[in-house]
């Protein structure tokens, strides 16, 4: 589903990604973990070209999205993204947030978009918030709306960029619950997270990034019991 | 102090007709200036060097010239250059539009820059094309923040519209001056139009406040 070949990315003189290669199968849940500043978010943001890589190739469903000829907007419609700080549109109600892109990007009839949105709101347990503005919601509720908004586009891939890092501790659970349920639907997911227990439970694979290099790419069992590199061991000691 | 408002009672309707002319200049210029200002602001944030350079240079010109100079240039130079007999209304609206767009574009640019970067990223990630993202996501949020500045600009425009009296348009101020010259009474007609300007601006402020309150609905 997703193939990354020899990806390099730098911001001015700082090399953020160094020769990262990785492939993720359809339906797989991949957790990207690692210390702050190791390039996790940058890698994730390269997958829908929110960041333009300097070198290397990214293929989504065998289409090379890094090729200049590619209609990236079309590809992005198929890749949902959830941000650390939600980024709901503050001037739209929850429902308007959810139906905007389906109507204006995918040209789905409004009635149908509303139906779909309400169904998704039910899935994230927020049916009664359809007409609220984001400012009226708690952090956990906002993030659940953000997830539902992405799902409204019916993507095949979901990217999560530290979805619980900006939340109060008591709200982390409700958001993880939603992501956990999603993992069982067969959608391909890439999750950047600091929630080790969650990564262990939900992910099929753990990618450990250290100073821009992908140093471990293992099953959760292997990674958490016997990580291969010293850096990963040190990291886990600190986190667990 | 001897004021004789009773002497200008009969010419009040004449002065009031100037109100429509003042409003016509202001309203047309405000709307056109706003649209052109948005376009210029988009030029300024674009990565296209030519558009960007044009907008920056354009703004510097209109900021660098006295408005009355631009106005007289447009009104008196157009017939000479293009052999087109421009009316005072046309000259006024063109000048005020071009001028206010230069100022508004800076305000709008700042307003767009102040919208959280994440809004753009969220829109891009959803596959929303640039134009729709700007109109439906970014600009509505920008306008909410810059509404007070836009109201200031409209007020300035309304008051600057009095400059058209210098090119012969019979707006409020010009009519007051005509009456003054006819009746040898200055204080009364000038005070009257001053009062009308004041009421207009107070009403504008009041409408803006209602608008602002409505836009704060989502907070």
From TrEMBL, chain A:
It comes from the Bacteria. Gene3D superfamilies: P-loop containing nucleotide triphosphate hydrolases (3.40.50.300). It holds the Pfam family ABC_tran. One of its GO terms (molecular function) is ATP hydrolysis activity. The keyword Transport applies. Residues 2-236 form the ABC transporter domain. Keywords: ATP-binding, Nucleotide-binding, Transport. The keyword Signal does not apply. SMART domains: AAA (SM00382). SUPFAM superfamilies: P-loop containing nucleoside triphosphate hydrolases. PANTHER family: AMINO ACID IMPORT ATP-BINDING PROTEIN, ARGININE TRANSPORT ATP-BINDING PROTEIN ARTM. This is ATP-binding cassette domain-containing protein. It comes from Shimazuella alba.
Automatic annotation (TrEMBL), chain B:
GO terms for biological process: amino acid transport. One of its GO terms (cellular component) is ATP-binding cassette (ABC) transporter complex. It is found in: Cell membrane. The keyword Transmembrane applies. It is a multi-pass membrane protein. The keyword Repressor does not apply. Residues 19-208 form the ABC transmembrane type-1 domain. It comes from the Bacteria. GO terms for molecular function: transmembrane transporter activity. The chain crosses the membrane at residues 20-43, 55-77, 190-211. Pfam families: BPD_transp_1. InterPro entries: AA_ABC_transptr_permease_3TM, ArtM/GltK/GlnP/TcyL/YhdX-like, MetI-like, MetI-like_sf. CDD domains: TM_PBP2 (cd06261). Keywords: Amino-acid transport, Cell membrane, Membrane, Transmembrane, Transmembrane helix, Transport. NCBIfam families: HEQRo_perm_3TM. Belongs to the binding-protein-dependent transport system permease family. HisMQ subfamily. PANTHER family: GLUTAMINE TRANSPORT SYSTEM PERMEASE PROTEIN GLNP (PTHR30614:SF20), MEMBRANE COMPONENT OF AMINO ACID ABC TRANSPORTER (PTHR30614). This is ABC transporter permease subunit. It comes from Shimazuella alba.
């Amino acid at each position: 589903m997703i193939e990354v070949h020899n990806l390099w990315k730098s911001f001015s003189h700082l090399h953020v990604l160094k020769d990262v290669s990785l492939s993720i199968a359809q339906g797989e849940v991949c957790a990207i973990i690692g210390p702050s500043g190791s390039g996790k978010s940058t890698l994730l943001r390269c997958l829908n070209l929110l960041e333009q890589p300097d070198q290397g190739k990214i293929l989504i469903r065998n289409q090379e999205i890094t090729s200049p000829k590619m209609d990236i907007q079309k590809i992005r419609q198929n890749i949902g993204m959830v941000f650390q700080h939600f980024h709901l549109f503050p001037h739209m109600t929850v429902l308007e947030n959810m139906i905007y892109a389906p109507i204006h990007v995918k040209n789905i009839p409004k009635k149908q978009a509303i139906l779909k949105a309400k169904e998704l709101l039910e899935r994230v347990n927020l049916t009664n918030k359809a007409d609220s503005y984001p400012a009226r919601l708690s952090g956990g509720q906002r993030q659940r709306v953000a997830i539902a908004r992405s799902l409204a586009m019916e993507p095949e891939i979901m990217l999560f960029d530290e979805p619980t890092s900006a939340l109060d501790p008591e709200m982390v659970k409700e958001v993880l619950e939603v992501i956990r349920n999603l993992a069982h639907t067969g959608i391909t997911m890439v999750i950047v997270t600091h929630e080790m227990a969650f990564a262990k439970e939900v992910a099929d694979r753990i990618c450990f990034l250290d100073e821009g290099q992908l140093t471990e790419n293992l099953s959760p069992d292997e990674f958490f019991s016997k990580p291969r590199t010293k850096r990963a061991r040190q990291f886990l000691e600190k986190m667990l | 102090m001897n004021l004789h408002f009773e002497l200008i009672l009969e010419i009040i309707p004449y002065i009031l007709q100037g109100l429509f002319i003042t409003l016509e200049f202001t309203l047309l210029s405000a709307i056109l200036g706003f649209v052109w200002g948005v376009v210029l602001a988009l030029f300024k944030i674009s990565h296209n060097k030519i558009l960007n350079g044009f907008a920056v240079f354009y703004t510097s010109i209109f900021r660098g010239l006295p408005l009355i100079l631009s106005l007289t240039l447009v009104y008196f130079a157009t017939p000479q250059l293009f052999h087109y007999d421009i009316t005072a209304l046309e000259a006024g609206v063109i000048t005020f539009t071009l001028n206010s767009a230069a100022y508004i574009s800076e305000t709008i640019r700042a307003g767009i820059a102040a919208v959280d970067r994440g809004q753009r990223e969220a829109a891009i990630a959803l596959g929303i094309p640039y134009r729709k993202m700007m109109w439906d996501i970014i600009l509505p949020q920008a306008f909410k923040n810059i509404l007070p500045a836009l109201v200031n600009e409209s007020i300035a425009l309304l008051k600057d519209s009095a400059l058209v009296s210098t090119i012969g348009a019979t707006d409020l101020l010009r009519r007051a001056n005509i009456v003054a010259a006819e009746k040898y009474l200055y204080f009364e007609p000038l005070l009257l139009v001053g009062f009308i300007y004041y009421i207009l601006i107070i009403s504008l402020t009041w409408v803006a406040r209602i608008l602002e309150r409505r836009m704060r609905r989502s907070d």
